[in-house]
Design goal:
Radius of gyration: 11 Å
Strand content: 25-35%
Oligomer: single chain
Structural class: alpha+beta
Shape: globular
Helix content: 25-40%
Length: 79
């Protein structure tokens, strides 16, 4: 059985200013879910500050911090 991929996108003001909402939109479009929902393969939601504001936008994928995410590279970083 495949392990579910848990994705949390930082919604703190610093990451939002650096594009975290655009990153979330790209993820939503790519996996067919909206924030706050999940299926067998993915669990997608926002989270609070991850403490790496200077390197944002930041996300967590299965408890691994991913800094400097953007629409162009995010799906590669999730895979």
């Amino acid at each position: 059985m495949q392990k579910q991929i848990i994705i949390k996108v930082c919604k703190h003001r610093s990451c939002v200013a650096n594009g975290s909402e655009n990153v979330m939109k790209k993820i939503e479009q790519s996996i067919g879910l909206t924030a706050g929902s999940k299926n067998i393969e993915y669990d997608l939601d926002y989270c609070g500050c991850l403490g790496h504001c200077a390197f944002g936008p930041n996300i967590v994928v299965n408890n691994n911090l991913v800094s400097g995410a953007d629409q162009g590279n995010i799906m590669e970083k999730i895979a």
